[in-house]
Amino acid sequence: MNDYAKAIGAAAVTGMLVGAAMVSTRTVSADTTPETLAFLRYAIGLALLVPPALRGGSARISAKDLLAMGGLGILQFAILMLLMNYALARLPAASCALVFSTLPLVTMCLALATGRERFSASRLCGAGVAVIGIVVLLAPSSAAGQGAFDLRAWAALLGATFIGAACSLLYRPYLARYPALSVSAFAMFVSVVFLAAICLVSGAPLAPRLSAAQWANAVFIGLSSGLGYFCLLWALGRLEASRVMAFQALAPITAVVIELLGAAYPPTWRLAGAFVLVLSGVWFGTREGRAPKG
């Protein structure tokens, strides 16, 4: 298997891990604060990344690049997560998932606007088809809940989406110079320190009282975050950001599949149609051959 195929696989794994973590998060979020959950998530993820990073040897990273990578870690893990949690507390979860599903389109627009990628009609169509599939998947519940006109919540949600897209582009220069594992571990370390400070300032506990089942889910969320983040950066070092982020469309359908297996609700033709649209969109967005690195 060549590097291109491995990168496609890593991007797909990232999308599916995000979806699985969504399901586990629902079992924990009611009994802990957003700040504590974010800290636990990335502290456990960091514990997964540190041993292989130490075994692989330390990369010689300049102080300037360390500062930039740390800033990206804070943006992607702390600020993005806090904005998303703020939106989730005030808007329907389906609405948040639907807006965040436009991440591939936002990434492509930013990449084109900054000259980092060439225009690709098939990738644009693929991202559009995937978003339509997610609309079909979430439409029945997208209008549910309260706070649909909370402008601050919508601004936080759009801000989280923009940060996710921007970070996927800004990581590339550092991934070209340093191993993905070193970048992953350092960025996550800085975000964990930042989130620990947020918890201390806000009075949120670093170790909440959870049941054994909830701790199992919290550990899974952390491990999936560590592995998913490494896979994401590894893929971003080898593929265009818009192509990698297209696989984030797999997150909501992975969550639905897990809930279907758990008999949370019965399968329907609407779900089947949504799956076909999302998977077709991902295929359209990634069927081109490897593009030259730029």
UniProtKB/TrEMBL annotation:
Entry annotated with the keyword DNA-binding:
no
| Compartments where located | Membrane
Topology of the protein relative to the lipid bilayer: Multi-pass membrane protein
Occurrences of domain EamA (ranges):
7-138, 156-284
Q: What transmembrane ranges does the database entry give?
A: 39-54, 66-86, 92-112, 124-145, 151-171, 183-203, 215-237, 244-263, 269-286
Keyword annotations from UniProtKB, A to Z: Membrane, Transmembrane, Transmembrane helix
Give one Pfam family.
EamA
Output the superkingdom of the source species.
Bacteria
* Family membership: Belongs to the EamA transporter family.
PANTHER family linked: EAMA DOMAIN-CONTAINING PROTEIN, INNER MEMBRANE TRANSPORTER
What protein am I looking at? Answer: DMT family transporter
Tell me what organism the protein belongs to.
Answer: Achromobacter denitrificans (Alcaligenes denitrificans)
